[in-house]
Backbone:
């Protein structure tokens, strides 16, 4: 069993590597249209909202970024910016731009355009309802030094900014796109970038057509692929049904698909259709508590639930080797990961002991009670996460063994959105964020970012008292620490703090799983698993 | 007759107004709203104050009765408003999606009607008992097939196994083949059941016995005397089946990844995009009203006795 598992894992890894390196051995063929099946329709394509994978799948083809994060080394390398400097305390960054880059509407991608992009992403724009980007912290203003030099100023140190310029949320768009209101950016045709592909047509909610930009010659300089993309076009089709996506791929009707369920991986591999499992290198697929809810305010209760959770069983029962069991809050491929497996042990005896100590006594129906109240919790299923309902139901079974009831709700998005702001209604929530920088912890847990723990003065007005300023201070330090080594140490401290306070129960490292046809070559992924079709080519099908 | 028509039209308008008002109220009662769903998105990380500003900007903070009046007035002028989620006018979304649904629903309904007729009359005309039993049990089979399962099964068989019909990026008409069958089978079932039952009932009627006594063949009795009368209840049911048709289209469009009102409705429900939902409610209600009006106007053509009732009551 173990041997087969390991073999499959190796095969998967080989497929991933060969997918990336294929262009090395064979001569790419130019031409052809790639059919790519997406599970969900894109939402708003304002680049800072590009975190949603269906959005990122489009934005990654049509926009370029200042810098390129090498997915193999996680180093930040040149792209639209040829070089950069920053001052010692990381409050000033200067970028030298590559000359001759234009947006697809013909306007220049120069210092002025870059300055306007980051002024908008860093500060937001209330009149146009454009929100602030979560990857840019402490932004103050920009200055155009000359047509190809731009300088950014920050109110406080912002060491994550350089990596931030490489993320999907920092795609550069033309001034005409920035001039539109937020609502207008739901239409892909309104996103004018400088990338290797252009949006040529769109059927809202159903299909986005991209065509190659013939005059493109400013891809990341360290990439094998240079000049225009190999493909003539890409057809992105929304195909919500899992079985239809995988079936169509295997029947030769599509070239690549996103979101392959773990149970479908085997049939693809058996027919020599490679699976690409790209890590998301951020906060693991996990459960986060809302300690403002009295039921989970007690550390002992949270610790008990942490130890009552058998993440190994979840991974073994529902997933494949592409979904590694979590060893910390962060994925093992994330920057600053520390292995905390010894603090995450499945230990129902300890869980029972902790619950007893906390005063929760088993009731007649097997559910623990205290002062006439049952230890019954509710969680909403998170649709973007793979097999989330099944994961939560399995966790519910595990918790039942120690006398805690967990009801899993599907719910409409309205109820889910409203209830998720109320710690009394949602004592815990599913969390996951992908980003290859320690700032990802702040993105997930800081009260004015995603606010996973629902803190006072955060995203909700319904929180009574809970706020952990020690945690928030640590997160602010990560965002402001200029010494790279110290920053990684702080990242470790935050992971320990989150686990020691049992704020978060990590379950597995969430990959983005794609499958491709055997004739699809040169598919690569950015650092957190968004596909890049720039180097892709289609082999002749015999 | 004119009086009858005026009265029916008046009733129809009342029904439409009631549909508008009830849907407005129901959509307001639901927890959350489109603006919250769109902006309370963890990817955006907005504070409660910023979201409140968005609400102001979208005019969601005005009193409900004002919103109601404004929406009703705009709708009367043919303006369906703006979709919060998609950021485009609802009329544009309808223009994109309505023809697609018509292309699916009309052939679907026609095929259902043809199937129902074949089953009902076929089972009545055959002399073979086993065939009659087999045909008559088809409706119960069809009605118990869940649409999504049927769709996936057809795709698996005809597209993935036999590879006869591409499902991804097919030609416009080829692509409709499987969806139309998926939609038609479950809808043909109630039609066939009603038709079978009303044929059976009519066969025992005195006028059929008279026709037979006069020496009419089974075929002539069936087509000349029974068919016309048997269609009456079917027509009534057909009017009611519009709802089934819309629900079926929703699932069919999702399984096959087609654009259309069904898929639009599903997304609008998910995002509580009130403007779209109200437009769809109004379109469906108008469809219902229109079809039932037509059914009532056509029924006298099939059964002249109904003409008399209309005259007396008008």
Residues:
């Amino acid at each position: 069993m173990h041997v087969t598992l390991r073999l499959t894992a190796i095969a998967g890894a080989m497929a991933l590597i060969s997918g990336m390196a294929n262009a090395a051995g064979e001569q790419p063929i130019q031409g052809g249209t790639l059919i790519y099946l997406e599970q969900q329709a894109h939402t708003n394509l304002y680049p800072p909202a590009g975190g949603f994978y269906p959005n990122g799948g489009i934005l990654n083809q049509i926009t370029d970024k200042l810098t390129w994060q090498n997915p193999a080394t996680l180093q930040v390398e040149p792209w639209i910016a040829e070089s950069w400097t920053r001052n010692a305390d990381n409050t000033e960054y200067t970028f030298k731009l590559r000359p001759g880059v234009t947006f697809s509407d013909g306007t220049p991608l120069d210092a002025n355009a870059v300055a306007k992009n980051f002024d908008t992403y860093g500060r937001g724009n209330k009149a146009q309802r454009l929100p602030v980007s979560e990857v840019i912290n402490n932004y103050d203003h920009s200055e155009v030094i000359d047509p190809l030099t731009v300088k950014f100023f920050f109110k406080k140190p912002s060491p994550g900014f350089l990596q931030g310029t490489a993320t999907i949320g920092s795609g550069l768009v033309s001034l005409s796109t920035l001039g539109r209101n937020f609502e207008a950016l739901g239409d892909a045709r309104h996103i004018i970038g400088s990338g290797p592909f252009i949006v040529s047509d769109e059927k809202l909610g159903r299909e986005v057509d991209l065509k190659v930009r013939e005059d493109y010659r400013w891809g990341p300089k360290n990439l094998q692929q240079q000049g225009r993309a190999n493909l003539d076009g890409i057809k992105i089709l929304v195909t919500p049904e899992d079985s239809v996506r995988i079936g169509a791929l295997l029947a030769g009707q599509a070239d690549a698909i996103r979101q392959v369920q773990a149970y479908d991986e085997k049939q693809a591999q058996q027919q020599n259709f490679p699976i690409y499992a790209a890590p998301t290198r951020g906060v693991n697929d996990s459960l986060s508590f809302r300690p403002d809810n009295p039921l989970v305010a007690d550390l002992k209760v949270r610790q008990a639930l942490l130890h009552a959770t058998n993440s190994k069983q979840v991974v073994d029962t529902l997933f494949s080797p592409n979904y590694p069991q979590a060893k910390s809050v962060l994925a093992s491929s994330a920057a600053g990961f520390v292995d905390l497996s010894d603090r995450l042990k499945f230990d129902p005896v300890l869980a029972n002991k902790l619950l007893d100590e906390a005063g929760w006594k088993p009731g007649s129906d097997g559910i623990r009670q205290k002062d006439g109240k049952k230890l019954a919790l509710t969680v909403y299923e998170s649709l973007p996460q793979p097999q989330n309902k099944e994961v939560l139901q399995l966790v519910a079974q595990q918790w039942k063994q120690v006398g805690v009831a967990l009801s899993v709700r599907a719910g409409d998005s309205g109820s889910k959105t409203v209830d998720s702001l109320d710690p009394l209604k949602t004592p815990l929530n599913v969390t996951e964020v992908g980003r290859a920088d320690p700032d990802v912890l702040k993105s997930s847990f800081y009260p004015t970012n995603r606010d996973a723990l629902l803190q006072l003065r955060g995203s909700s007005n319904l929180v009574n008292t809970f706020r952990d300023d020690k945690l928030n201070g640590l997160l602010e330090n990560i965002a402001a620490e200029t010494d790279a080594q110290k920053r990684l140490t702080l990242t470790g401290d935050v992971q320990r703090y989150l686990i020691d306070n049992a704020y978060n129960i990590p379950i597995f490292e969430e990959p983005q799983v794609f499958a491709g046809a055997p004739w699809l070559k040169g598919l690569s992924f950015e650092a957190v698993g968004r596909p890049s079709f720039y180097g892709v080519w289609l082999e002749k099908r015999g | 007759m004119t009086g009858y028509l005026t009265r029916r039209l008046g009733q129809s308008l009342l029904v439409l107004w009631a549909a508008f008002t009830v849907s407005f109220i129901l959509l307001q009662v639901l927890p959350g709203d489109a603006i919250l769903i769109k902006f309370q998105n963890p990817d955006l990380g907005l504070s409660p104050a910023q979201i409140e500003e968005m609400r102001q900007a979208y005019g969601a903070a005005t009193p409900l009765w004002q919103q109601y009046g404004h929406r009703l007035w705009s709708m009367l002028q043919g303006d369906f408003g703006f979709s919060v989620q998609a950021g485009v006018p609802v009329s544009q979304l309808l223009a994109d999606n309505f023809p697609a649904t018509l292309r699916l629903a009309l052939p679907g309904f026609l095929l259902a009607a043809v199937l129902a007729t074949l089953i009902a009359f076929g089972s009545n005309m055959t002399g073979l008992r086993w065939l009659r039993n087999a045909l008559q049990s088809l409706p119960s089979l069809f009605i118990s097939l869940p649409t999504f399962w049927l769709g996936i099964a057809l795709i698996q068989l005809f597209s993935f196994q036999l590879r006869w019909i591409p499902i991804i990026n097919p030609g416009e008409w080829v692509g409709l083949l499987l969806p139309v069958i998926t939609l038609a089978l479950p809808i043909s079932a109630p039609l066939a059941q009603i038709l079978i039952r009303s044929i059976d009932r009519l066969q025992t009627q005195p006028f059929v016995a008279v026709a037979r006594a006069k020496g009419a063949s089974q075929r002539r009795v069936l087509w000349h005397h029974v068919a016309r009368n048997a269609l009456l209840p079917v027509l009534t049911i057909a009017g009611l089946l519009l709802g089934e048709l819309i629900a079926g289209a929703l699932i069919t469009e999702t399984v096959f990844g087609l654009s259309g009102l069904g898929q639009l409705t599903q997304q609008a429900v998910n995002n509580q995009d009130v403007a779209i939902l109200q437009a769809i409610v109004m379109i469906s209600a108008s469809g219902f009203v229109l079809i039932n009006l037509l059914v009532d106007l056509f029924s006298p053509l099939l059964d002249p006795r109904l003409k008399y009732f209309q005259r007396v009551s008008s």
Q: What stands out?
A: The first helix of chain B runs from residue 2 to 29. The mean pLDDT of chain B is 84.
